[in-house]
Amino acid sequence: MGIALASLISGIVALYLHLWKLGLTGSLACTESHGCELVQGSRYGWFLGFDVALIGTVGYTLLFVAAMIGVWPKNEDERWPNTLMQLLIWPAVLFTIRLKYGEFIVLKSFCPWCAISAAAITICAVLVLLDKRRLNRLGPANA
Hints:
With 143 residues, this protein is mainly α. A hairpin with a 2-residue loop joins strand 1 and strand 2. It is elongated. The chain has five helices and two strands, in the order ααββααα. Helices cover 70% and strands 3% of the residues. The protein has one domain: VKOR domain (de novo design (two linked rop proteins), Up-down Bundle). It has a two-stranded antiparallel ribbon with strand order 1-2.
C-alpha cells in the first residue's frame, strides 16, 4: 500500500509538471530561485524527445496499478506483482539518478517537485525490497 500511495502522489506531481509544460496550469509554484523552471526547461526535462514529467506520469500510473493489484487479497502472497513492480521501480531509480545528476551537478539547481519524485521512488525501492524479503520467507510454494 505504501508503494501505491507514493506512486499516486508522485504521479500527480508529474502530471502537474507536464500540464505546466503544456501551458495548462499557469505559473509553476516553486522556490524563489526558479529552480523548477530551470530544470524543467533544460535538456534534463526531456528524454529522447519526450517530456520527463510525462514519462513520470505514465510510469507512476503503471506502478500504482501494479501496487494496487499486489494488495488484492488473492495476490498478496504472489511473487509476480512484486516482480512487476521491480521491473518498473529499478529503471526509475536509475533514471532518477541521471536526473539528480543533471539537476544538482550540471545545472546547479534544485526543484522541490523533482525532490518529491526522487524521495518517492527511493521509498518504493525500499518497500519493494522489503516485500521481496517477506515473500522469500514464505518459501518456494509461491515461486
